[in-house]
Amino acid sequence: xxxKQQWSSKIGFILAAAGSAxxxxxxxxxxxxxxxxGGGVFFLLFIVFTILIGTPILLAEFVIGRRAGxxxxxxxxKLAPGSAWYLIGYLGTVVSFIILxxxxxxxxxxxxxxxxxxxxxxxxxxxxxxxxxxxxIIANPWEILITQAIFIVMTVMVVQGGIQKGIERASxxxxxSLFILFLILMARSxxxxxxxxxxxxxxxxxxxxxxxxxxxxxxxxxxxSLTVGLSVMVxxxxxxxxxxxxxxxxxSVTGLNxxxxxxxxxxxxxxxxxxxxxxxxxxxxxxVVLPAVFNEIAFGGIFLTVFLILLLFAxxxxxxxxxxxxxxxxxxxxxxxxxxxxxxxxxxxxxxGIPSALSFGVFSDFTLLGRNFFDFADYxxxxxxxxxxxxxxxxxxxxxxxxxxxxxxxxxGSSISGGMFNAWIILLRYIVPVAIILVFLx
Length: 442
Description:
Belongs to the sodium:neurotransmitter symporter (SNF) (TC 2.A.22) family. It is a multi-pass membrane protein. It is found in: Membrane. Pfam families: SNF. By secondary structure, the chain is mainly alpha-helical. It has one domain (10-98, 160-283, 315-346, 377-441). The chain contains 18 helices and no strands.
């Protein structure tokens, strides 16, 4: 019998798990959400909710995955045999598949921009021209399909290598590189004249923005930025050694996610304010506003290329984890099947993503519930799939599993006290479900 795959070290697992969490949510979505909702107040609420809501669910997924030692679907079958709880695993696998189908489209956008940045084609334009360029790129069917395919191939090439030789090795290089690139960009952004106005916007709360809607949006951002609810972390934790501390790993992943969100804000908002742009430009801030910002500073083309490389790294590390949940469910630990099933999953994701890729061009007139294919896929996963998955995970661990079994699993590799364990269970049993329902209803 082949030896079960495991992470080679605790840091390898943390970097891979952090890479899963730190994707477009932290680098692309957080800045425009914070920019549109008051900056400092939104960031403060985001931190609170990430710690109190996101981390308990993250640790719950770790418990399920390591205790069962299997893929997401099999884990629930092993821990709750003869019940319907395994449907949580199927839900996470299906939602992951849908997410990657449109996530890969955004990865293709990044590749399109990165290619143009290498040739200098992104230099010397106005913000309006950058807006026109973005619209022309996402409406070009051949370019979008080709770049989407390239992004999926890059993801498949890593995931087919397995946990240690594929995902962990790539994360060990990509995550430190991401931090270094971020620090370089932040240093440049903070040295611009007028940059401190952007820093104050991000770090000093304007309490006039403290509303119920802002709180719900911040809760949603905290929830989705950790990619909890997909059972992705169930799959990742199934490769975790019994000697590793799950609470410390969960805290490390949460801390890195908050840190990267902070860095993203300190890269974008000082630059935006220093050069007279508005912080509430919306989702186009990475593809329309930032190129215009970098165009106004010395060596801006180089810094824009660095930012796009950083964004690509973050997007890929998330894509690895999302693809892995489907591959793990198909292979059931049989490594001989990993390569063919990884390519099969990649091909199916590409086919499923074609409508999303063409949503802004050829299929722009086709809508579902008033949304194009891309927005509809985002809507059903973010507003329904993830909240429902996370809700059931919190209930499963806090109500279905035996308390002593959960405590035993948590205490392996860690010295968590009974008081901390009880606090976590209370959060998971009472606070987290109420918060998730609020986000779901909003």
